[in-house]
Amino acid sequence: MQINPPYLMFLGDVPDQLAAKTAHGIVDWRAEWCIGQMRLPGCGADLHLADMTIAEACAKGAKTMIVGVANAGGVLPAHWASSIVAAIEAGMDVASGLHMKLGDNAEIAAAAARHGRQLFDVRHTDQRFATGKGTKRPGLRLLTVGTDCSAGKKYTALALEKEMRTRGFDADFRATGQTGIFISGRGVAIDAVVADFISGAVEWIAPAADPGHWDLIEGQGSLFHPSFSGVTLGLLHGAQPDAFVVCHEPTRTRMRGVQHPLPTIQQVIDLTIACGQLTNPAIRCVGIAINTQALDQAAALHVLAEASAKHHLPAVDPVRFGVGAIVDRITAEYPASTRTKTH
Amino acid sequence: MQINPPYLMFLGDVPDQLAAKTAHGIVDWRAEWCIGQMRLPGCGADLHLADMTIAEACAKGAKTMIVGVANAGGVLPAHWASSIVAAIEAGMDVASGLHMKLGDNAEIAAAAARHGRQLFDVRHTDQRFATGKGTKRPGLRLLTVGTDCSAGKKYTALALEKEMRTRGFDADFRATGQTGIFISGRGVAIDAVVADFISGAVEWIAPAADPGHWDLIEGQGSLFHPSFSGVTLGLLHGAQPDAFVVCHEPTRTRMRGVQHPLPTIQQVIDLTIACGQLTNPAIRCVGIAINTQALDQAAALHVLAEASAKHHLPAVDPVRFGVGAIVDRITAEYPASTRTKTH
What we know:
2 copies of one chain form a homodimer. The first copy, chain A, is of the alpha/beta class. Chain A has helices at residues 21-29, 54-59, 81-89, 106-115, 153-166, 178-184, 198-205, 229-239, 265-276, 297-311, 324-333; strands spanning 7-12, 34-39, 64-67, 93-96, 119-121, 140-146, 171-174, 214-217, 243-248, 284-290, 315-316. The first copy, chain A, contains 11 helices and 11 strands. The radius of gyration of chain A is 20 Å and the shape is globular. The A-B interface holds A 131-135, 190-196, 198-200, 223-224, 226-235, 237-238, 257-260, 271, 274-275, 278-279 and B 131-135, 190-196, 198-200, 223-224, 226-235, 237-238, 257-260, 271, 274-275, 278-279.
């Protein structure tokens, strides 16, 4: 899927900011694509964008209405449909992160067919994939992995894209989850792919590229998470990364949603290398990204210094201190990276 | 899904025995369920069962017509539909291993609705699964793993079920692929499950059981196969096996469908234990199953003796010499196994 910006952000009447988490992520990373927000009476979320009507958004060039909100059950409230239909009639495509497909609403499906507009359901994919082949492809690839789910893998990959582009690298973020797809306008929700095609889908997401080009691939789950490890291993083998960054949340004691303790950073490094060598014998760890939000400045710096010394790797908090030290390491270790690209 | 025997085996007019491989597998393991075969003019396959009409099969008590054949593209030939409709009208359910769903044929769907019969598409599942939790469940579990795909994992699990039941163990084969589902009448084609639910589906296939009961779970793929490793790891974590058997084909040099060399048996043992400990710290290897079909008797015995000595494990060819030595090991190592069950 290729979702075309600029975006009109539709928030419906969700009760709070948390329900608009995906929309906030899009604004954080692609403010230049988000030309306004549209809210229904009673909406408790606010992206701090200009409120505008569909006509106003179209006048400003909006190409796609983004339904970047979550609601109980993932269904589309019936009273949102008229706004979506109006956007389609005004010439916009519509992209949604709800579990329920847009086209399952008869009015929306009919409007899209009538006006020849595209409906994107980023949690789903109609793309047919081949099974993965594991054959080495040209181009450089970095995968973010984690000691757990929700440990900063998407944020780290996006921060690396931004910093590497600033320094002239030819680098592209590759989305494997819904928020990442909205942010990059393309990608596949890898956890929604049929199991046989996990690695094949990743080979499609991060295809052969120029030898000096970097794909910065958003990781999912953890090799140590009993719910999602299969997704993580298929993603690792399909991504065939040259480099990986371990993402970690140091105050967590149990993995999300289960009773299992977090693995150590060293365990994640070791198992990622042991498994990753199957499709890229040169795989190595180039950094550690630690979410220090729960720590004060001194404690955060201490945790990072300790991790760096222990693992002989740059250790950063991408949000608090940036990923510069990891990009320094990439610069030193991959001299063949293309540095002439201007973004 | 719970497919009810006895079965009438429908072979259509497939050109040769290979196209009826699934049907042959069912007859090999569940001859007592297969009361006859039905073939159309020109059929090149033969299960060496009595040829019979639908009326004759019904008179003998057939409950389900099995479409256990493969054909180019996995679609249902239009001229097979009338036979399937006739079976439904005679009171049978129908189960198919084709890629195309039975219900996608309008005549078949209408007949099933009209007569209240069930249609089973064993490559698909409508079952909704939870994500895996990785919590230890009561009961004993054995998983067959492999150095590659198609290395004898299903056969070994079925042979273990047969031998263990003969010796009075309370043991059930758990199917994760289409042929296994027909053979056991239930199961889930695990490679067709959405990626997020691989381990959750396995937790559903092999649920909590009596402490002395054995689930013998059919493995899929290999942790070292770049196409399917995600399925294999999710299956390992969901199965949380106490014991595993490594299946190997010694004359193969490359993994099926890809360019990668086969891993060694030791590599498979080591990585299976390293990963499997996440959901069962007591996981251990209890045997090696080697397909010696390509070797003469002396060479086969030599390969087995060598593997046994090297790994300090029973090494058998389940087809040629049976799995008795592995069941001896299980008997010795798991004294809490229930041995009072009569099958």
